[in-house]
Amino acid sequence: MAKHHVYGIDLGSYEIKVYDLEKDNIWTEKNVVAVDSSGALLAVGDHAFAMYEKTPPDIEVVFPMHEGVISDFQHIQDLLQYLLDAGSTFAAGGEYTIAVPADVTELEKRAFFDLLVHSSAKARSVKVIERGVADAIGLGLDVQRSDGVFVANFGGETLELSVIAAGGLVFNQRLPIGGRVMDRLIVERVRHHYNFLIGLTTAEKLRMKVGIKDDRSGRTVKIAGRDLLYGVPTVKQIPASLVRASLKDLLEQCVEAIMSLIERTPPEIHRIILNDGIYVAGGLARMTGLPQYINRATGLHVHTSRKPEMCSVRGLEQIVKLEELNELAYSMEEDTERWA
Ligand SMILES: Nc1ncnc2c1ncn2[C@@H]1O[C@H](COP(=O)(O)OP(=O)(O)O)[C@@H](O)[C@H]1O
Ligand SMILES: [Mg+2]
Predict the structure, then answer these.
(1) What atom in ligand 1 is closest to the CA of residue 154?
(2) Which of 85, 269, 301, 315 is the Cys-Cys partner for 137 at CB 3.0 to 4.6 Å?
(3) Ligand 1, atom 9: nearest CA belongs to which residue?
């Protein structure tokens, strides 16, 4: 019999990241599809993302996940099917271990299972692991022997907070705060202060470029958009500090959520977290100044990795590779009645 295909999947609202055991590699694709008015698939993944905000009105660019969970089953299934047909990465009938977000309902978890079992992936088995646990492993922590680890995953649409002890989850929480929300706030502030309309893609580029470092130099950056007074496309100079100003309240909310979850932990775990600090994963952890901001606002050490967005999938890699970590993931069984 052919060797089983074994995959670790991190299905994010922004990007899908997959570890393929057979090939021993990781590939990523933006979690996006482009469809025309008849619903036909025009592009998927990175290609579809590149079309975002650039398409004519009869083409729609869809993000099939919302705040960490599957919101558009049909389109995410199409996306998976397309990647399957492309043939280069997926193979049907594999064994999957999937990272599930913090704080999901059974129904939302079941949607991940259904996607892998009842779509063209036709998974033979599906195991589930909490993303926070996968992140901690991806960050190189010995989760099974740690008595208190705090992980914050700053992703595309969510902030996931997890407290882990002895390989298991003690608490977790998911907040609808992520890169996309930040980009909307930047768009709003630019419109309000400059009567200037920019797209979410421009806001994201700006956010990636300047970050949230406390910048009092008066430095400005050039951005393209549409002047709302004259209705014409043009470029404008805006202060780099606008990004930090737009995100001020949201960042304070992040810190508040982190602190209040830490406060809820039992004394023994609490002591360890205050001593060791917190671990930060997710693509947003790359944003210039974010780890430093959290450090200053919480007074805690903030540890991260060079590629924070890859922590979950790196953790999944270890989980599918190593037997002693494998047991941290649990099987999801088929709910036969629903599909009879
Ligand atoms: N260098 C960077 N600076 C700021 N934000 C970044 C940077 N790199 C990635 N991001 C942001 O990280 C988010 C995606 O993180 P990721 O963990 O891959 O998302 P998810 O797992 O939720 O799909 C996006 O909002 C993106 O804008
Ligand atoms: Mg992520």
Answers:
(1) 17
(2) 315
(3) 283
